[in-house]
Fold this sequence. Notes:
The chain has about 290 residues and is an alpha/beta fold. It contains ten helices and 13 strands. The strands form three sheets. A six-stranded mixed β-sheet has the order 8-12-7-11-9-10. A five-stranded mixed β-sheet has the order 4-3-5-13-6. It has a two-stranded antiparallel sheet with strand order 1-2. Helix 1 packs across helix 2, helix 1 crosses helix 4 (about 60-90) and helix 2 (about 20-25) crosses helix 3. The longest helix is centred in the N-terminal third of the chain and has 30 residues, at about 60-90.
Amino acid sequence: xxxxxxxxxxxxxxxxxxxxxxxxxxxxxxxxxxxxxxxxxxxxxxxxxxxxxxxxxxxxxxxxxxxxxxxxxxxxxxxxxxxxxxxxxxxxxxxxxxxxxxxxxxxxxxxxxxxxxxxxxxxxxxxxxxxxxxxxxxxxxxxxxxxxxxxxxxxxxxxxxxxxxxxxxxxxxxxxxxxxxxxxxxxxxxxxxxxxxxxxxxxxxxxxxxxxxxxxxxxxxxxxxxxxxxxxxxxxxxxxxxxxxxxxxxxxxxxxxxxxxxxxxxxxxxxxxxxxxxxxxxxxxxxxxxxxxx
Length: 294
């Protein structure tokens, strides 16, 4: 197999910048060399990778497909270089975790503290994003480990190494603003009130929408945010009924009550996952040892 890695390197830079002159600047080669490399690669593949005009450069469908394969390879090379550098400096490598803001705050901080005390020389990097995006980062090799909510439609189940917590989602409201005749409230009745929940790109949103659809109901939330803490704050001042993980509730709150629903809300899990198709750093294995097994 005759693979010219320089051609793919030029392709990656053009595909991510969509700018031939910027690629030229970053790679320290002439713009004509960039253009010639792309033409050579297109000729070898028998595909047009970019559509060019006087104003802009865009990926063709073929170029988009190729980028999906090239980008993880570039990330893997960069990750390997970073690990070698970190091992040289600290002896263990860095720890790069992807997790939601909620999971970091309520579940991971004690274990990050323990890891930092045990391995003070190991750099720790945390990327906060949704559980769905975390799965994408893991697949692309951009993080070493993710800790996310499950079920997660984008997560390869073979990547799961540990279930570290089991939890229930709950609806909460300020009783001064929301009073119900029955001790149990149905999903149908909930629909008549403003629902506050995480935004649609989250696993939690997908979970609740699917749960309502299971009962032949369409969920139309009043407010969608990217922070459970903010949802709690808004529920506390009576703006609506918030849907949050139960582990976000710390003790009794006179301004909030947990609503009992007539329909069962299944338990969910928090899982720690690594990409089994990539080498696992020693630092990642050490952190996994610290995490509990639910």
